[in-house]
Amino acid sequence: MNKPLSWQYNEFQQIGKDFGNTKEVEMYDSSHSSFRDMKKESDDILDILSLKKTDTLVDIGSGTGTFVIQAASRCATV
Q1: Are the beta carbons of 42 and 72 closer than 8 angstroms?
Q2: What is the rounded distance in angstroms from the CA atom of residue 15 to the CA atom of residue 76?
Q3: Cα separations in angstroms, 21 against 43, 56, 64
Q4: Rounded distance, CA 50 to CA 7, Å?
Q5: What is the full DSSP assignment across 21-60?
Q6: Which residues pair with 56 in a beta bridge?
Q7: pLDDT tens track for 4-17
Q8: Using CA atoms, how far apart are residues 1 and 35, in angstroms rounded to an integer?
Q9: Span 25-63, pLDDT tens digits
C-alpha cells in the first residue's frame, strides 16, 4: 500500500476514544458511572425493543460494550 498524500484523510488513524484498549474502557466506564447508570439505560432500551430469545441484535458503534453485554442475555445473537 502506498503512503497517503499529505492532504488525504487517513482512515486508519485512531480518533477519539480507543474502546479496543481495556484501560481506556475502564476509565470511561468509571468516570461515566458517577453521573449515569449505563446498565439501567441499556435495560430500558432493551425493554422497549422487546427482544425475544430467538432474536439477533446488531449494534453499530458499540462503544465500551455495556449495551451488547446486557443484550447478550436477552437474545440469541449479538
Answers
A1: no
A2: 32
A3: 25, 26, 9
A4: 47
A5: SHHHHHHHHHHHTTT--HHHHHHHHHHHHT--TT-B---S
A6: 77
A7: 678 888 888 878 88
A8: 45
A9: 999 999 999 999 999 999 999 999 999 999 999 999 888
